[in-house]
Design brief:
Elements: H1 10-20, H2 26-33, H3 41-49, E1 53-58, E2 61-69, H4 71-95, H5 98-122, H6 138-143
Antiparallel strand pairs: 1-2
Amino acid sequence: MERPERAVTSAELSVLGLLYRGPMSAGELAWAERVQPQSLTRTLAALEERGEISRHPDPADRRRSVLSITESGKAVLLADVVQMDSWLAMAMAGELSPAETLLLTMAGELMERLAEAEVAALHRPVSLPRPSRAGETADAGKRGDAAGGA
């Protein structure tokens, strides 16, 4: 069974899917896609030109832009999801046993959880360990007694 042709590229759909979960900078999108930010330039330009994403200044840092999915972008994403879901349902019904279908459904739910966790990680502040001072042991700092005594 052949998959239907898409009106937008896989890269565009991936960006729309990420932005559907929340606004992101181009750098955050590149990190999530595991590409260099420059690699997304054409993709972002095409989506912006068609009105599927919008760019606005980051309220926390006006030098940085944040990208968001528009209603038009959500419609494009939804149309693709509906088309792919329909194709997948027909393919599964024609090729898989009920047990395999259940297993694949469960795997899909787990993959969705992992994807959501990865996107959430983009928005979590990073806490780095505090460098220790010369002569201080890691345990001493935790106990609150730098000399190690009582």
